[in-house]
Amino acid sequence: MKKIISLSIAVLSIFAVSCMGSKIGGMSESQGGEVTGISGTAVSEPTPYGMVFISRGSIKIGDEEKDSLWGIDAPVKDVSVDAFWMDETEVSNAKYRQFVFWVRDSIIRERLADPAFGGDETFKITEDEYGEPITPYLNWKKPIPWKKPTEDELRAIESVFITNPITGEKMLDASQMNYKYEEYDYTQAALRRNRINPAERNRNTDIPVDLESVVMISKDTAYIDEEGVIVRETINRPLSSAYDFLNTYIVNVYPDTTCWVNDFPNANNETYLKLYFSHPNYDNYPVVGVSWEQANAFCAWRTSFLIKGLGAQAKWIQRYRLPSEAEWEYAARGKNGSRFPWEQSDTKSDEGCYYANYKPGEGNYTKDGSLITSRCGIFSANSNGLYDMAGNVAEWTSTVYTESGILQMNDINPDLQYRAAKEDPYSMKKKAVRGGSWKDPVRYIQGATRSYEYQNESRSYIGFRCVRSYAGAERRR
User: Fold this and answer.
1) Residues near 47 by Cβ (< 8 Å), separated by ≥ 6?
2) Which of 313, 382, 438, 449 could form a disulfide with 341 if both were Cys (CB 3.0 to 4.6 A apart)?
3) What b-and-e string marks burial along 377-393, b requiring 16 or more CB atoms within 10 Å of the CB?
4) What is the 3-state secondary structure (H, E, C) of 412-443?
5) Which of 81-95, 141-155, 210-224, 379-393 comes out lowest in average pLDDT?
6) Contacts by 61-67, CB closer than 8 A, 24 or more apart
7) Which SS3 state, helix, strand or coil, does residue 327 take?
């Protein structure tokens, strides 16, 4: 049996609630018998590393002016969104490589603690500070012995690498880079029809309560079979407990480096295939070849990574996630809702300098200074302080792509989400992609232009950036 190790981190959305602390055991002092409320200490959330703050506000999503060249209509609707943090640039190769190496190092630590590889128990923490037994977890303070490993340690380290049978090159075994995480679906759990107690599912007192009624729910789960293959299933079963809203995912997180040759047949893109993700010269270029599913796994890992670093403060922090389609357009079009992230109507200055990395002419990719992607953030930021919201790479959003788009969503924090199962029709796996890329003409880099890709597909021209919701009152922009 082929043994594949996956890493499991529970990633739950953290909801900010008011502190209950006060001078008298969490209760406010009485003021002559009047209700005065229970006060708490205000929390000032620091700016997350590499992110900018987007104030809450409203915008007319879509473009009311029909494009004379392309003749494409974008759904138009006035919407409002709450404040959020957003990555100032797309996620780079270097940042995504940190994720891949974290998975690699986790697998190695698991094996170093495995009796089959010497069984060094110090790579696992099994007791709390009081000596009480706990669920074992990895000891990240103990370094991996890269330089002078013992024979057993060397076997554990080398188990995540393979040798190319043709070139003899030693490389990371991408097939083992599986990340397992869990997400609690707060939205489904909050729906009245999904209450555990049947008496709470309907407030209409004219309708008798059917205590024997059964609610069917869908739950995502995943496991690795005996052949080392990731099996993902969506289970339909009667609602029995809150755990029915805890979904499990296992995702192979290594980017598809072959996208450079699969996207462009009859082209010599071998250099990008071999070097784009791994060569340090591309560290600050946007990661590509990452599917929507892999982007979500990165968000989950980034959340757990932050939570472990913050300790007790983590209870106030919202999870990292992909932006909704509405959030993305609102942030991209800047404080004035411009057609492009910049204020001008053209895509280059009077001096002939381009404002973004896209395809300015038929077959002329280099006119703007780049052939493929460019380093993140080399063009000017928009009025929100965000770079590359037009061109460079198109970006995944959390939103399901439909032709009607925003019209079938709410006008407050609009989003339409559905994580399609493997057995679902392929047409249900479309996700909205925004911003256009280095290979796209000017039409696709406008803020209101919509496009899509399938959630399990990876392209050499699609990347992503993360957002994080902001909890608290702040002035409208």
Assistant:
1) 53, 85
2) 382
3) bebebbebebbbbbbbb
4) ECCCCCCCCCCCCCHHHHEEEEECCCCCCCHH
5) 210-224
6) 61/326, 61/329, 61/330, 61/406, 61/414, 61/448, 62/405, 62/406, 62/448, 63/339, 63/446, 63/448, 63/449, 67/443
7) helix
